[in-house]
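Q: Convert this sequence to structure tokens.
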Amino acid sequence: MGGVMKPMGTCAPSEVRFDQAACDLQLDGTGFEDLPESCIELVLCFLSPRDIAISACTNRTFRGASLSDVVWHAKLPKDYTEFLAKAKDGACYFDSKKKIFDFLRIKRTLYNHEFWLSRSLGGVCVHQGAEALDVVWGSDERYWDWRQQPGSRYDKSAYLKAVCWLDVKGSMECSLPVGTYTLSWRFALEQDAFGFTRHDPYGFTGHEGTWPIEFAMSVNDHKTVQKESFLRDGQFSSEGEHSSDDEDREEVDTDWKNFYVGDFSVEEGDKDSRIGRVKLQYSLVETRGGNWKSGLWLDGVVIMPKQQKSIGCVMP
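A:
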């Protein structure tokens, strides 16, 4: 047989010959789109919602498969029917699983929590507004104000006029898909804000500079994260950094930042449920130095999936 090759290492490259007749495959113009639509549907089940949308633009076969209930059922929360029943407009009628997914992708509010399915991250995101937090002296207009601010996810955000005792705490107990999540504080600083940098003459009270803010997070009553940082000098991500979707970044204002606190894991509760319940407590505190602080906007706490393998539903 022509084109037979000697064992590797026993011949020079010039002796290796390729037999086109023996290896040629006649595809007769057959392409991936010629596969049965049911096969393409199964392939799309392994793609992210964003990639499914991109695939739908390639040809009619892919577009037809991308609308299949088989594809979008795999992307829906396991308990989505219960979730729809609790949503304000959950009585809406949906004639396809894709429409249900699109409905859940829009931010919904339940029990002071805002949650949605991220198309780019492929998982559940949760936001707890500032009004649901425990803000020391938050009801005293001398120290805090509650205003509407561009880019906020809520009608009102907490604005710090001036305090020398900063103490904000929050908690949440909810069900999430099994996986790893990040917790961040969503905040903004005015141009003339003071008390949030390492060397701040306005915050001086007898100490050399100001004191850092203490961030803490506990998961299921076990403290897992405790860190200190100056908000003005600290490492934080711009709004929307974790997402490439416009839908995940709606009403974005460049002044809003996410200060990353830490990660936590959700483990499966009932067998094969892919859902676990988690209890979170978090705080933002600076009470040691007596330094005055002003110009801080707090919009709340953001939870986003870090590495999402499956989609589930938030049930506060």
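The mean pLDDT is 76.
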